[in-house]
Amino acid sequence: MQTENMILYGLWFGESKPFMGGFTKPLVNTLKDIETNGIDFDYNGQTHNSKCFLICGTADLPAKSIVMNCNQFNGQYSCLRCMHSGETYRTSKGGTVRTFPYNSSEPDPEKRTTQECINNAVTAIQNGTVVNGIKGPSFLMALKYYDFVKSSSIDYMHGVLLGITKLLINLWTNGSNNCITPDDLKRSQTMLSYFVHMFTALYGQRYMTLNMHSLLHLPECVEDLGPMWVYSCFPYENANGLLTKLFHGTQNIELQIISSLSIVQNMPSLLCNIEDPVHKAFAEKMQNVSENSKKYTGTLTGSVPVGCKMKMHLSDEVYSKLITTVKFKPSKCLCFRRISLRGFTIHSLEYSRVSVRNTYTVKYFEPERKSLCYGSILYYILAKKCECLDDLCSCDSSLVAVMHRYEETKTSIVKPNFLSVKANHIKVTKKTCFLCVVDTSKIMSVMVNVRIDDIGNYFLCEVPNLKESD
Fold first, then answer.
1. DSSP category for residue 246
2. According to the lineage, what is the superkingdom (predicted)?
3. For site-directed labelling of 445, which of 15, 71, 177, 395 has its Cα 20 to 30 A away?
4. pLDDT for 336-378, tens place per residue?
5. Region 80-102: what's the mean pLDDT?
6. What angle do CA 202, 204, 205 make, to 5 degrees?
7. Is 376 helix (H, G, I), strand (E, B) or coil?
C-alpha cells in the first residue's frame, strides 16, 4: 500500500492506552456516513457518488484486543476465530503464559460467528463480566458489512514472521504465486495442522502461544480476505517510521506531523499540476520518483538499462552467442550493471555497491530447451542496430543478460511422506561455468539464493510475492 493511499485517522499521546469508545467515535460516525450517503467526487466533468464500506481490518495482537474489545493474547478465549480457551502454563522461571495446545482428537475447535460475538458483548455489558473473551461491544460491530470474525485478519508480519519464525530461530540457535488455488489452501491446512501438532512434542507446551494457534486459521483467513500481503501490517509499520521523520524538537508535535503528512500525501497530485518540465523533474528527483541516471530508450523488450555504461571487453564466445540471441550483428554494444525490468531493478555481479542483497540470480525461459532455467547474471549488454553517435537515441535495440547457468541436481528436496508434501518452490542446483546470453524479456523472476556448500551447490527458492519489498 502506497503512503498517499493511507488516511491518518488520529494520533494518541500519553502514558496509557486511549479509551476506544471516545477515541474512535469520530471514525465511526464517518464510516457510517459514507456507508449511507457515500462520497461525491468529480470525474470528467461529471459528479459521481460512491458508497464505501469497511470490509477488512488488521493490527498486531495488543492493538487488536483494544479495538475488538476482547481479551489480550495472554487471556482466556483470546482467539477471535474459534472457541479455543487456551491453558495456563507455568514456565521454568515461575511465571505463567497462555498456551493453546493442539488437540488431535478435536483439531478444528468450534468456530465463532459475528452474531454470537455480538450476543457475548451484550451479555458482558449486562453482567459486567467477560464472556468468551469478549469484554463488550466494539465499534466495528456497528458497521454494515464488517464481519466481526471473518473481516478481522491475522497479521502475518507480527504473527508469522516476527512471531513463529523468530521463535523458531531463537529455539534453534539458542539451544507466489500469482494465484492461490483451493488445492493450495487444502495442502497448507494439512501442513500447518501437522506443524502445530508436532510443535509441542519438539519444543514443549510453553511455546504453544496464540501466534502458534493462529497458524491453524491462516488458510481460512486467506479464503475470506485474500493473500496475506494484502492485509499485513508492513505498510503501517513503514508509515510509523515515516511519522517519526515528520517532526523535530518537542513543541507542537501533532501540528508538525499533520502539516508534513498532508504535504506527503498530496505530493502525487501536486506533481501532476506542475507544468514546467524542469521544475517537475526536480520535484520528482526530490521524491525519488525517477532514477538519478540516464534512461536508454528503444529496447524491444521494454526493459531499460539503469545507471552509467561500463567498459567491458566481450569475448568471442559471448559475442557469438549475442548475435545468435538478438538475430543481428550489432553495430555497437553498451554494457551495464543494472536494468529496470517490469518496474523492478535487477542487479548483476558487476554491481558491487550492493553486497548483502542478491537480485542477480534469476529464473528465465529457455526457448531452445522449452524449459525453465536458472542463472546468475554477470552483466547486461544493450545491442544497437544503428550507428548513431548518441547512445540515448531511440533506435531499435535489444537488451540481453550474460549469465552463468545453474543446473538442477535433484527434482525435490522432500522425501516421500504420508502428508504428500512437496517443495516445488525450492530447487537444488549446481552453478556451472556455462555462459549463456538471454534476452531480458525471457527473465521471469528473481530467485532467493542460498549457498549449501563451498563447491557450488545452491538452493534456489521462489520469492513468495512481488508486492512487498524486503
1. S
2. Eukaryota
3. 395
4. 999 998 878 899 999 988 877 888 999 999 988 888 999 999 9
5. 89
6. 135
7. strand
Same domain, 39 and 86: yes
DSSP state for residue 15 in the 8-state scheme: S
Number of H helices, E strands in the chain: 13, 14
Q: What are phi and psi of 467, to 5 degrees?
A: -90, -20
Query: Are 167 and 134 spatial neighbours (Cβ–Cβ below 8 Å)?
Result: no
Residue 116: closest CA among 86, 67, 149: 149
Number of domains in the chain: 3
Rounded to whole angstroms, the Cα distance separating 246 from 256 reads 7
CA distance 183 to 67: 34
Residues 339 and 424 in one domain: yes
For 177-224, write each residue's pLDDT tens digit.
Answer: 456 778 778 888 888 888 888 888 888 888 888 889 999 998 888 888
Q: In DSSP terms, which residues pair with 306 in a beta bridge?
A: 295, 338
Assess if residue 467 is contained within a domain. no
The backbone torsions φ and ψ at residue 17, rounded to the nearest 5 degrees and listed phi first, read -75, 150
The confidence band for 298, taking pLDDT boundaries of 50, 70 and 90, is: very low
Q: Which three cell numbers stand for residue 264?
A: 506527503
Show Cβ contacts of residue 161 under 8 Å, excluding neighbours closer than 6 positions: none
Q: How many CA atoms lie within 13 A of 284 on its CB side?
A: 16
Residue 136, phi then psi, degrees to nearest 5? 170, -175
